[in-house]
Design a protein that fits this description.
Layout: H1 4-26, H2 31-46, H3 50-85, H4 88-100, H5 105-118, H6 123-141, H7 148-156
Helix pairs in contact: 1-2, 2-3, 3-6, 4-6, 5-6, 5-7, 6-7
Length: about 160
């Protein structure tokens, strides 16, 4: 078999695993479950030994990532939950809705995400903070919730 064939299969595996990860996440599967499934697809196509590659490459990298960013994820999740429980997200959503209008939920989410990001809040925390707010805005505007990640990403991505 020529040397290029395994490399092409590996690239196909990466693209398929990325598509699978996006599909599973879009369907509501937690990323902690979808990522290992997608990585197995990439490993099968790369023709690497499955178990050693999974236990010696993927799992340590995933554990390192989670360990490095756990405090950020935890505080962001707590802050987002506090915004929901205290009614702060509904209050902000009502204020923004009264100022901009209920049909401008996408623009309101993008603008608010940008203000929060440029105000100095970490990008990871912005996702947890903005989700309850965006969920309430989208509910009022009757817009599908699947668009929330894209609007938060658009507002919080740095411009060059």
């Amino acid at each position: 078999m020529p040397k290029e064939v395994p490399m092409i299969l590996g690239i196909i595996g990466i693209l398929l695993s990325l598509a699978l990860l996006i599909t599973l996440a879009y369907r509501g599967m937690p990323v902690l479950i979808a990522a290992p499934i997608a990585s197995i697809v990439a490993l099968v196509f790369s023709q690497a030994p499955l178990l050693p590659a999974y236990t010696e490459i993927f799992m340590p990298a995933m554990a390192g990532f989670i360990g490095s960013f756990f405090p950020v994820f935890l505080t962001g999740a707590i802050f987002g939950m506090l915004m929901t429980v205290t009614g702060y997200a509904k209050s902000i959503a009502a204020t923004v809705t009264s100022l901009i209008g209920s049909k401008a939920a996408i623009a309101a989410t993008v603008i608010t995400s940008a203000l929060v990001t440029y105000g100095g809040i970490s990008l990871f925390v912005v996702a947890f903070v903005m989700y309850p707010l965006a969920r309430e805005l989208f509910r009022v505007a009757d817009i599908p919730r699947r668009l929330i990640p894209a609007t938060i990403a658009l507002g919080s991505s740095p411009s060059r």
